[in-house]
Amino acid sequence: MSVYDYHARTLQGKEIPLSDYQDQVLLIVNTASKCGFTPQYRGLQELYEKFHDRHFEILGFPSNQFAHQEPGDNEDIAEFCQVNYGVNFPMFEKTDVKGDHAHPLFKHLTEEAPGVLGSKAIKWNFTKFLVDKQGRVIKRYAPQTTPDKIEEDIKKLLGDSSSR
């Protein structure tokens, strides 16, 4: 299986197949609006603007599973992201990313890219998963890994061997 085998519902309520993102490098992130890592939205948006025209997408999945740091509804989340960080990459509805009710996509991501010491559970907001153009999970990044630290890995998957 690949990430393309899953569906998710956008903040606007539209169910879409992730196969819509086939042949693109993806960074899938569980997000929250009231977290110490929330300013990473800025860096994520910068990555998106820098690489989007080269077949790169960021998919944001808000989650309220970590200290209730995403209390709003879909409309609140969309407004917060746009007003505070200018986010225009795809954002999906509030999602369980761990536990018995975790979205199947996140079960797949954590199986394919376990965390430290082989842990499969997502430990906090802003855990990131890098996916290649074939839908394979390449790497998992801890919440404290800022978006700029992922840039070189993105360039490699996009076929850019030069440093800029």
From TrEMBL:
Listed Gene3D superfamilies: Glutaredoxin
The UniProt record lists the keyword NAD: no
CDD domains registered for this protein in UniProt: GSH_Peroxidase
GO terms (BP aspect): cellular response to oxidative stress
InterPro entries named among the record's database cross-references: Glutathione_peroxidase, GPX_AS, GPX_CS, Thioredoxin-like_sf, Thioredoxin_domain
Active site: C35
Xref: Pfam families: GSHPx
Coiled coil: none
Keywords from the named record: Oxidoreductase, Peroxidase
Domain of life: Bacteria
GO molecular function: peroxidase activity
Domain Thioredoxin: 1-159
PANTHER family on file: GLUTATHIONE PEROXIDASE
Family per record: Belongs to the glutathione peroxidase family.
Protein name in UniProt: Glutathione peroxidase
Organism: Paenibacillus dendrobii
